[in-house]
């Protein structure tokens, strides 16, 4: 490295360091005492014992000892980002919540995406439900929409949640497996809690292998109420629709990415926001009038059921844009306390028994995990003023003045004062509640298989094939033949074809039960029906010295123009030179890159290709081909992959005489993204 380059790198490092809020400030203790030596503890002589009176050492070590708050029991592996929400048009007919009434408002939001089952160290591409939780910092207070990327859940009543999580977590005798459902206790729970049937189908689908947080839907899961200024209530379900469409990995791809880059999802979100490719999600509502509460063959309060979009359409009302990465993952993403009980006027709860359990559990969890005054932390604090008589408690941030901290009082004129509902105060919707005290499941909650069958009926042939493979893998990992058979018999209620095919794969008996006769389908449930775009998809471009400079630059510029992200790959890092003096900076070497992390591959090659380059390029191409992704090749590139036998296969495009035609064909292939017909290609 020459001196100029070295100085340039130092300047870059200094600029990055200057982004710290304490850059060029004196070092001090947490009490503000300036520190003269932070390298040596206070000792009795230079080789003597360390003295207990060294308050600086004690402060530094004791703080370090407590730098990790307990991780979440569920949703431990998470990543977040800041953004804004804007309404398309006023929804005042539905709700009096200010952020749903005034389209001129720009409501700040924070989103935390997560996995459910794994610990903080789990791979991000494991098969798992993904959390999709949004905190709206509205002028009326904080509203938290705490949901998942799947619209239904495993259980109907919150009292069973500890049982579900105990079953899905690593088995306590050996702490195996981490962040996976392919084990005995999970499937034993499913087989013996058959309300999980619909969720079982969802988690075995490709929905639990999202390509990116940017390409997955979000659902509030529960039925809430919205209440307008006239006091009229309606039932509602919340939806997030990604503007870029919905896309998932295939199973083999997800496993390999977990090894190549276990941080793949957070890296994808971080890099795209840094590059200005801001993820966008439209907010949709499914709305039911109160008179229609019992109009369906499912209970609208049952969290194991969805409302088919063909019956209750999703009304798109606004858009969320994630436009800023966190400055500190611990202070923001880890300390954020999301809670479905955080609602604002205009939004209220229903009697959904799973939601009712969460309303207690989340408060209890946040107090235990983060602390008594978790709501005072910057990431949790509302943007509107907070005034009440809460005092003291662990880690109190606010310094309250005055001697009065109670209601009613005369010494402070009974302040802070209450606000009538007519002037903006929160008023609970006066829904009628009656009945005997019972521990029972409502009869309307007892149909467990109709919507599981609905999901199966709605899948494309490829999606059904993937579900069969997923069940075969998961149950193949279950050691108990009894549990395997119980699940197969349960599946028989949904589809005889599904159950018998999986049974044959895992050595179980064909089910002796009759499948559900539900023939309904919902096209909205199939990812095969989603619109997909090339924007922000990543193309790995493999280049060797002597590549066709003008042609390559022309093609890459066309791809960049439509939003494709180009990653230059070569045998080694640095700069690679082509014809006409064209030089391109290398982003990944064939060693540091991985074929599974690119959405498409363009093999340019060059006039100088050694055996290592050829072998690694062939490996990249084979991996991309086996995962049904687009492959483009120049004349040099086609020669490299010729002996793989894939030239002429669907989605494998060879550059002709016109670079622009090739560029357009490849863009179309990236838009299609998967060429499933390769499974039958020979």
From TrEMBL:
Catalase core domain: which residues?
28-415
Q: Where is the composition biased (Basic and acidic residues)?
A: 8-20, 36-46
Which keywords annotate this record?
Answer: Heme, Hydrogen peroxide, Iron, Metal-binding, Oxidoreductase, Peroxidase
Its top-level enzyme class, in one word, is oxidoreductase
The record's catalysed reaction(s) read:
2 H2O2 = O2 + 2 H2O
Stated family = Belongs to the catalase family. HPII subfamily.
Q: What does this protein do?
A: Decomposes hydrogen peroxide into water and oxygen; serves to protect cells from the toxic effects of hydrogen peroxide.
Show the PANTHER family listed in the entry. Answer: CATALASE, CATALASE-B
- The name under which this protein is listed is Catalase
Q: Which organism is it from?
A: Paenibacillus shirakamiensis
